[in-house]
Amino acid sequence: MALFTDGALTSIEELKGHDTQLLNVATTEGIDVTRKLALAQEELSVEVSGLLARMSGAPGMGQVVVTPPLRVWHSFRTLEMVYRDAYNSQLNDRYGGKRDEYHVMAQWAWDHVTRGGLGIVGDPVEKAAMPEVTPASGGLADGTYYVAVAWTNAAGEEGCGSSPSVIQLSGGSFEVRTTAPPYVQGWNVYCGTGPEAMTIQNGTVLSTRETWVAPATISTNGRQAGLGQVPTYRLPVPRTIQRG
């Protein structure tokens, strides 16, 4: 699972899964859904960090894992914001009804967050930066290759994989490097001929000082990059009443 601080909690595609009319409404009413996703995440960050600040010895936001209830909370909060803007623009009762529906669903999702507690990792590893991929000598088949990396901590736990770098080969091979923060202990490299076909290439975790050089044949049998760390423990949170 990704960390709260790794980036966007949900996507427009996930929102469309909850509301198939979302993009039609956004286009008609001139609403920037991407901006609403970001604003909703800012609101969640304020609320969660405020809760943590009131708890003695609580972890920081960089240790909070995006569990399914937290992701759903973000989705419904975003949809509530979209339909609130749509209603305020047209005073359309249909929009108002959807706004109210998603407000209730956001409260429902928050209730599940508080029931299960916040997922916390003891030694967090942030989402890796895109790797540096450069041509090298070798005999790899010509074509387009997608390369991503994931950083690991001292226990070998892997953070969220990076966005892929892309290289087009016509003769030769390529090598991969990563630049990681000092706390990162190692890294794994994932490669494939498509963004959905990247599998792990190294047999053992690489040192942050190592360069990985692609062999003559890219492995296709390894596991795909994970979505990040699982919670080390669940932190109970007060069942506070949400705004609105």
Give the SSE layout:
Blueprint: H1 12-18, H2 22-29, H3 33-53, H4 68-90, H5 93-116, E1 118-120, E2 132-136, E3 143-152, E4 165-169, E5 173-177, E6 186-192, E7 199-200, E8 212-213, E9 233-235
Antiparallel strand pairs: 1-9, 2-5, 3-4, 3-6, 5-8, 6-7
Helix pairs in contact: 2-4, 3-4, 4-5
Explain what you see.
A 4-stranded antiparallel β-sheet has the order 4-3-6-7, with no helix packed on it. A 3-stranded antiparallel β-sheet has the order 2-5-8, with no helix packed on it. It has a two-stranded antiparallel sheet with strand order 1-9. The two termini are 29 Å apart. It folds into 2 domains: 4-124, no CATH class; 132-213, no CATH class. Strand 6 (186-192) and strand 7 (199-200) form a beta hairpin. By secondary structure, it is α+β, with helices and mostly antiparallel strands. The protein is flat, with a radius of gyration of 21 Å. It has 5 helices and 9 strands.
Strand content: 15-25%
How many helix segments? 5
Total strand segments:
9
Strand order of the largest sheet: 4-3-6-7
Q: Structural class of the helices, strands and pairings?
A: alpha+beta
**What's the SSE pattern?**
HHHHHEEEEEEEEE
The gyration radius over C-alpha positions equals 21 Å
- Shape by Cα distribution: flat
End-to-end CA span:
29 Å
* Unreliable parts: none
Q: Estimate the mean pLDDT confidence.
A: 94
Helix content: 25-40%
**Main sheet summary:** 4 strands, antiparallel
The total number of structural domains is: 2
